[in-house]
Every structure is written in C-alpha cells, then in structure tokens.
Design a protein that fits this description.
With about 250 residues, the chain is an alpha/beta fold. Helix content is about 45%, strand content about 15%. The chain has 11 helices and 8 strands. Strand 3, helix 3 and strand 4 form a beta-alpha-beta unit. The longest helix is centred in the middle third of the chain and has 22 residues. The termini are close together. About 45% of the residues are buried.
C-alpha cells in the first residue's frame, strides 16, 4: 500500500459468536494486536457489544447496523446513541445482506450514515453490485448511485470521518473474489467520484475491500493504490486468520 492513509481492517462477525467463543477470540487476538500496522475494528452482534467493548483494546468496537431514527416506538431497532453509550466507535451501514434481505434502500442507508455521524460514530458505508450487474456492465452505475445517495446526505467530509467499503455481492461468502485489478478499478472510480466533490476528503477517505478476503489473497489486494484495508466476514471468525489478514497490510 503506497498511500499515506492509515490502513483499516474491520471484522464483521455477522450472526455468529457466543460468550465462550468471543472470549477465546479476544484472548488470541488482543495480545498480538498492538504489533499490527493497521487500525482494527470488530463489528459484533448487538448482544455481545457490552462484554466485548471492555476487552478489545487496542481494537475498536463496532456494530453491524443502526437505526436511522433517534428514539421512539421502533421495537427491535437500536439507535446510534445507544451504540455510542456501550462503547461503539464504528458501525456498518448498507451491508449487502441488509440491502437484499431487509430491503434497505439507498435513502435508508444514507439516513443511517447520517444518524451514526450525529451520534459521534464512524460509519463504514458499504456499496456493491450483484453478478448480474457486473455481467451487464453496470458496476459503476450501481456503486456510483449507492455512493451518491450517501454523499448527498452527509457530504464528502462526513463520509471521510468513517470509511467506504466496496463489497461485490457476488464475492461475499462465495469463495470468489474480485481480482486485485478489478477491485482497484472500482476503488479508484469511487475515490474519483468523491474527489469530484471534495479532493481533500477523497484523499483522506479509507476505502476497504470486502469479498472472500483471506490471508492468501489479502497482501495482493491491500497493495493496490486505492485499497486501504478490508471488511472481513467469514475469515474474521478465526482470530489467527484475522491476524494473518491484518499482518498482510503494507504501509
């Protein structure tokens, strides 16, 4: 990695974990985390945030979703203020599984990013295309539209306070991944889109790659000019594997 942006690698445990498994993960990860050359975030299910937040340092705590509403009669929702209250610093918004399985629109994702920022959280805003989109040559149109909705709401500087994550839907949990060149092409286009509004914010913005990242391919992916780290799903469930991915970062 040749940029001056400090790399960021985030673990997304999705709907996995237990008190015992989490304790084992932390005991394996934390003693070695201080030597890493990147910032690290662990995004865990809501029910584990309180216990994890007390033991993760130097990694920071993140949530996997947030409500676009501040408070009120919204049973099952969790507000950004609540997440901040239990020690979260980061939150994933717009993950492809939320967009697909919960019908989250670009407007909802943008609203969640705005709420996160208002509460002092750093949103990891996810964008990505399906296989059908890619095969139809619509990748840039799709991810550009998803990004534009967030930029229109929080602005480039707001987005740069968090991170952007490109996660091709066809590569998530499938064992397939974009080639480093494919990923770099999309990352460069996303940064250029932000630069069209604010060059300083674009230069500071960390853009992560997510999609079947493993220790065996992380180094080549992270060496690309516009790839500033990763949003890691399945491979993050094993602390040793996640450490190996983080160690692949080049500054």
């Amino acid at each position: 990695m040749t940029s001056k942006r400090r790399p960021l690698v985030a673990a997304n445990w999705k709907m996995n974990g237990s008190l015992t498994a989490n304790e084992d993960w932390v005991s394996s990860f934390v003693p070695k985390a201080a030597a890493l050359r990147c910032d690290t975030v662990v995004c865990a299910p809501f029910v584990y945030l309180c216990t994890l937040g007390r033991s993760l340092a130097p990694a920071e705590l993140g949530a996997q979703d947030v409500s676009e509403r501040a408070a009120g009669a919204f049973t099952g929702d969790v507000s950004a203020e609540m997440l901040a209250d239990v020690g979260c610093r980061w939150v994933i918004v717009g993950h492809s599984e939320r967009r697909q399985l919960h019908a989250e629109t670009d407007a909802i994702v943008a609203g969640k990013a705005a709420r996160a920022l208002q509460a002092g959280l750093r949103p990891i805003v996810c964008v990505g295309e399906t296989l059908a989109d890619r095969e139809a040559g619509r990748t840039q149109d799709v991810v550009g539209g998803q990004l534009a909705a967030v930029l229109d709401t929080v602005g480039p500087a707001g987005l740069a306070r968090g991170a952007l994550a490109y996660e091709p839907v066809w590569a998530i949990g499938t064992g397939r991944n974009a080639t480093p060149a494919q990923a770099q092409e999309v990352h460069a286009a996303l940064r250029a889109q932000v630069a069209g509004r604010d060059k300083s914010a674009a230069a500071a913005l960390r853009i992560l790659y997510g999609g079947s990242v493993k220790a065996t391919n992380a180094g080549e992916l992270f060496s690309q000019q516009d790839i500033d780290g990763g949003l890691i799903g399945g491979a993050s469930l094993n602390a040793a594997d996640f450490l190996a991915i983080c160690a692949a970062v080049r500054i």
